[in-house]
């Protein structure tokens, strides 16, 4: 296929969960991130110049480590899924351009400078990050702080009024902090409590909804076709196993779901999809019914794929 055709194919799939995210190199991912802001007319509306946003994307990319999972491609996937949601759920009908820009920018920045070792490690190993943030979401606080520094450095929102700059920066910090999975039950519970009488005119409802949206995008790999998502599980388990190996050799506690002697791809995904993903995406369908066909369909297929694998494994060992 000619490069022109490939490009057209990528463009048409930018708002689809079916996009082939593994075929993209770093420069293509940055270009597509820029296109998302352009498509939503955010550069024009918020008067962001393209050289400024390119400097922002270069800086962000430079701060992502080459971890197996928490790397720049993960940032791209989370951001692209947010773009899918914005387009397919017509979120611009409900949210202001400033809020859409905060959602996209928070996704891009949400795991900045991630060291590949999670909050539990940071706290148990008494790292500098854990000390600095007194064991409260050390990683997410750090990602948010990094985002704020980069945004100030490149002055991305320089043409907004001071109060708008304050508002968008606070929104980005709030959204990044929402991605701490230790807050999952709390945030999901708040959303479930309001879902059936959801009111877009209520600022609290809007905030909870935005937290849910970024959380959903952050863990949305299994909403993509299985042949795309399966590779992410290998990446995640590689990062988990590296961490638990380090914890074992350092005499620190380690979680069973990260232990190479206990975890398989299938049992990890059956648990995560059924306990976390399906309830979360199902709750979102109460406000956005089209999530059922857009994302839940792939999730259910992934669940049945991993249940079959898990079953076969069980049969082979008995
Ligand atoms: N077992 C699985 N765990 C997953 C998967 N996708 C995400 N996750 C976990 O959630 C957090 C998300 O937060 P992040 O901001 O750190 O990216 C991640 O660290 C994993 O622990 C999955 O498909 N399976
Ligand atoms: Zn993430």
Report the oligomer. single chain
* H-E string: HHHHHHHHHHHHHHH
What is the CATH level 1 assignment of the largest domain? Mainly Alpha
Uncertain segments are none
Which ligands are bound? ligand LQESDW3C, zinc ion
Radius of gyration: 20 Å
Tell me the CATH architecture of the largest domain: Orthogonal Bundle
Distance between the termini: 48 Å
How many beta strands in the DSSP annotation?
Answer: 0
Catalytic activity: 3',5'-cyclic GMP + H2O = GMP + H(+)
Protein name: High affinity cGMP-specific 3',5'-cyclic phosphodiesterase 9A
Keywords: cGMP, Hydrolase, Metal-binding
EC number: 3.1.4.35
Quick description:
With 318 residues, the chain is mostly helical. The protein has 15 helices and no strands.
Give your account of this protein's structure:
By secondary structure, this protein is mostly helical. The protein folds into two domains: 22-219, Catalytic domain of cyclic nucleotide phosphodiesterase 4b2b (Orthogonal Bundle), CATH 1.10.1300; 221-317. 69% of the residues lie in helices and 0% in strands. The protein contains 15 helices and no strands. The protein has helices at residues 3-13, 26-39, 42-45, 50-63, 72-88, 97-109, 119-124, 128-132, 138-154, 162-177, 184-195, 203-218, 226-250, 265-285, 291-317. Helix 4 packs antiparallel against helix 9 (138-154). It is globular, with a radius of gyration of 20 Å. The termini are far apart. The mean pLDDT is 96. The protein binds the ligand Nc1nc2c(ncn2[C@@H]2O[C@H](COP(=O)(O)O)[C@@H](O)[C@H]2O)c(=O)[nH]1 and zinc ion. Zinc ion binds next to helix 5.
């Amino acid at each position: 296929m000619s490069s022109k055709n490939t490009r057209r194919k990528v463009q048409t799939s930018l708002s689809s969960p079916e996009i082939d995210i593994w075929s993209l190199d770093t420069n293509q991912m940055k270009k597509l991130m820029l296109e998302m802001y352009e498509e939503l007319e955010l550069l024009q509306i918020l008067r962001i110049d393209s050289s400024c946003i390119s400097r922002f994307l270069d800086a962000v990319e430079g701060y992502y480590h080459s971890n197996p999972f928490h790397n720049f491609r993960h940032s791209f996937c989370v951001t692209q899924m947010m773009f899918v949601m914005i387009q397919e759920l017509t979120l611009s009908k409900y949210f202001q351009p400033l809020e859409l820009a905060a959602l996209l920018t928070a996704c891009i920045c949400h795991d900045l400078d991630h060291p590949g070792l999670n909050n539990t490690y940071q706290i148990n190993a008494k790292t500098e990050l854990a000390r600095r943030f007194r064991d409260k979401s050390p990683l997410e606080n750090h990602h948010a702080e990094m985002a704020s520094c980069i945004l100030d450095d490149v002055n991305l929102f320089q043409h907004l009024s001071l109060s708008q700059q304050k508002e968008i920066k606070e929104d980005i910090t709030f959204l990044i902090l929402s991605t701490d999975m230790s807050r999952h039950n709390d945030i999901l519970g708040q959303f479930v409590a309001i879902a059936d009488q959801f009111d877009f005119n209520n600022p609290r409802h809007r905030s909870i909804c935005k937290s849910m949206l970024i959380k959903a995008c952050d863990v949305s790999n299994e909403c993509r076709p299985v042949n795309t998502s399966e590779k992410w599980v290998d990446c995640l388990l590689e990062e988990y196993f590296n961490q638990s190996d380090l914890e074992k050799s350092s005499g620190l506690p380690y979680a069973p779901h990260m232990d190479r002697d206990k975890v398989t791809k299938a049992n990890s995904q059956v648990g995560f999809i059924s306990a976390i993903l399906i309830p979360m995406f199902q709750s979102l369908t109460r406000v956005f019914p089209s999530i059922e066909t857009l994302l839940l369909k792939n999730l259910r297929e992934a669940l049945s794929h991993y249940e079959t694998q898990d079953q076969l494994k069980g049969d082979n060992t008995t």
